[in-house]
Design a protein that fits this description.
Aldehyde Dehydrogenase, Chain A, domain 2; 2 domains; four-stranded antiparallel sheet
Length: 433
Amino acid sequence: MQEMQNTQMEIAEAARQMKLESPNVAATSLETRNAALMAAKEALATHADEIFAANAADLAAADEAGVAPAVKNRLKFDQHKLDDVIAGIDDTAKLPDPVGAVLLHRELDEGLLLKRIACPIGVIGVIFEARPDALVQISTLCLKSGNCSILKGGSETARTNKVLFDLIHDAAVSAGMPSACMLQVEAREDIGKLLACDGSVDLLIPRGSNAFVRYIMDNTRIPVMGHADGICHIYVDESADLDVAIPVIVDAKTQYTAACNAVETLLVHRAIAPELLPRLAEACESAGIELRGDDAVQATISCKPATDEDWATEYLDLILSIKVVDDIDEAITHINRYGSHHTDAIMAEDDAAAEHFMQLVDSAGVYRNCSTRFADGFRYGFGAEVGISTSKLHARGPVGLEGLVTYKYEIEGHGHIVGDYASGKRSFHFRDL
């Protein structure tokens, strides 16, 4: 049935039909949505061999195409990835229902009641590169939040994406979700058609490289939620405990180097640089990290010179640029100028310094004495995430269930008319209930 939809119906028409059906998806009960998640979980576990076979074919094609090892690692969907997404589905199912929550309840006048009610966004288009596990995370979060999802994965994992989509869609429908809850877009040329579906698609979420996300943002009138790059920083204050700081820096660079929340630039207070840099250089050499430093860093340790371009670069590789700063305010200014407003951290034992940094750094995530790699919906207890947003509107940081709902206002009265208030016959008293 899904293949018939894709072959017989243009993307624009499919999106229009999904938009018309989206209120029915939004109206499904929590029990139905959770049942869909459990059915999807069971389907993924039962058909693991089928998923792995499709992924093996995708990886073989990547080898033939000469895909770099770091990129190929993103394409892999193995037992570890399957266990992770299944755990994410379990966690998502346990979360409270985000739909229908009363956000405001106010009596405007006697018998005239106002409510602000959380409701699904509607139709969410998600375009992602690599990482087939993203399809599972996104589709299940959309199911739980009562949203329809249009999913376009990268051609490099087309086989894996197809198997995953079919399993989740069929499981959701078998549990009582409307068939229109999910749609898969497979052809590369259909991306442009999807980007033109303003009026039918309520929100686009791109996940991929800087250039990819920027292309999406620049070529659609649909609101886009996401981030174009992840230039993350760690600032080591003069009050830092180096036994704490060095392992955190290494983790933030190496735990998953290709992730958008990996650290790219290290800022070091001048007073602590002579003690920190030699110890850090030794730790980084053991971890295979290439260091690039400014003049002050090069005067202390052996490293490659850093240029202005380095401060604005998301390496996604085992490379770390280091700059020595005179004080915390210079570090803050540097981060707000060169950073991507994603995730930045301070290593400091001084409470006042940490508070100053966390207040003035303008990023979606600001941490103290911990790795930037914690910027993740699963690690925040969101079950999973549809992506990380550096926007300040609607949702910011890792976007889980709460970021997939908006709200509507409901007023209930008893024949109230505005004319009575305009004439002074009645007046508002605004009492929160």
